[in-house]
Design goal:
This protein has helices at residues 5-26, 28-37, 45-66, 77-97, 103-107, 109-114, 137-147, 153-181, 183-191, 205-214; strands at 71-73, 151-152. It has a two-stranded antiparallel ribbon. It is mostly helical and 222 residues long.
Length: 222
Amino acid sequence: MHLDPLQIIILSLSWIAYGAIHSLLAALGFKALVARHAPALMPSYRILFNLLGIVLLVPPLWLTFSWSGPLLWAWTGIYAWLANALALAALAGFAVSSRYYDMGSFTGLAQWRSREHAVEDLGGFRLSPLHRYVRHPWYALGLVILWTRDMDEARLLSTVFISLYLWIGSLFEERKLRRFHGEAYARYQARVPGLFPLPGRSLSADEARELETMSHPQTRTP
């Protein structure tokens, strides 16, 4: 079954709605509004944000797989081996690099346990080995997984929207990181590409440690 124009519009709008709501909830301005009017929610804000992010994914993903149809392309032979190897390597990259993230802050458990009311997320400026080559390694790994899958029309449309959201989301995220980490992050941006590794655009281990040391997070707004 090929997608008809109405299905394309509905699926596109479902991803646009997801991106708009998710971005709004992640925005510092919205979090500051919650902090002013419902401060009791702040310690659990990150947990609720993550849970809602999962719930909001259900409609567009359900549409994507409900409207699956003839494949536009499928990886076969040596190309299937290569595609799956890249996807497995990306999954391994997630697992290995997670050791360098503050997973307590990422999940929201740290904020909940400490009864944190700050608008800014917790966590310092820490560069994993993958961060020395791209500024957003998890987004980059996610793109590898997305684009190494077989594609029908619905999956291709969803993959395009997810890819756009990861790219746009990285731009908004960097505004917050630049504000929070100042000159250290500005220097990091100048040296390392955002999503795709480029020759000659990387940091040595010593250079990464130097940037981590010079980062002085700004005072967080309650």
